[in-house]
Amino acid sequence: MGSRLEAVRAVFDYKAASYHAQRKCIGILGISLPVLLALGKMLIDAMFGAPGNPDFKLGIVSSISGYYYTVMSGVFVGTLFAIGVFLFNYRGPDENDNRDNLAGNIACIFALGVALFPTAPTPPGDYPKIISMIHFGSAAIFLLTLAYFSLFLFTRTDPNRKPTKRKLLRNKIYRGLGWTIISAIALCAAVMLFLDDYWISKLAPAFWLESVAVWAFGWSWMIKGEAILKDNE
């Protein structure tokens, strides 16, 4: 009897470790993406760029999606595919609750949509508008689905157990990060629609707002993966 109980505990411990590992991987990829793209491009351009070229720019690209047209294209696409694979395989801790699985599959599909349907280049020329629309729609749904994870899935509590102080703190952080994602998406849309021709566009506001949204979802998954703020009670 004791050996059977130990075997059951081992299975649950393995599954819990697997959930935490998946969450941490998603979080690390999200947090590192804007940093890798920006620093990677600047470093490679500084080492191998051609400053005599009138199209040469050493600095931040206008948006995260814009790195598709730089030397960091492989990192951009590869990271989105990696995030998509982890989200597709993510099932959540409760086998009777299918919301984690469904949300992960939706986020996976639209993460791949962001990678496979690139944003329009600058200048756009005769680039098909339908592809740009698919790209922006995929990006919005991808990030909103991750906000849903933070606001509604990560904040669930076991009705049979009293939540710990750390759990209550984590729930507040999850909600704050979820609303940060939504706010950053709304501000980014407003900037692109109404302020694209103003001086502020030179500061790459879309890149920074997208980075805030991506960092918010990344830290949310890192916390859920118990990289920080793990229960100590």
Can you give a write-up of this model?
There is one protein chain. By secondary structure, the protein is mostly helical. It has one domain (2-224). It is built from six helices and no strands. It has helices at residues 2-48, 73-89, 99-116, 129-153, 165-194, 205-224. The longest helix has 47 residues, at 2-48. The relative contact order is 0.14.
Give the helix/strand layout.
Elements: H1 2-48, H2 73-89, H3 99-116, H4 129-153, H5 165-194, H6 205-224
Q: Tally the helices: what do you get?
A: 6
Q: How many domain modules?
A: 1
Shape: elongated
End-to-end span in angstroms?
A: 29 Å
**Low-pLDDT residue intervals, each spanning 5 or more residues:** 5-14
Structural class: mainly alpha
Largest sheet: none
**CA-based gyration radius:** 20 Å
Share in helix: 55-70%
Quaternary structure annotation: single chain
Mean pLDDT comes to 88
| Count of beta strands | 0
Order of helices and strands: HHHHHH
Strand fraction band?
under 5%
Task: Briefly characterize the structure.
The chain contains six helices and no strands. The chain is an all-alpha fold and 233 residues long.
Task: Tag the structure with descriptive keywords.
233 residues; mainly alpha; 6 helices; 67% helix
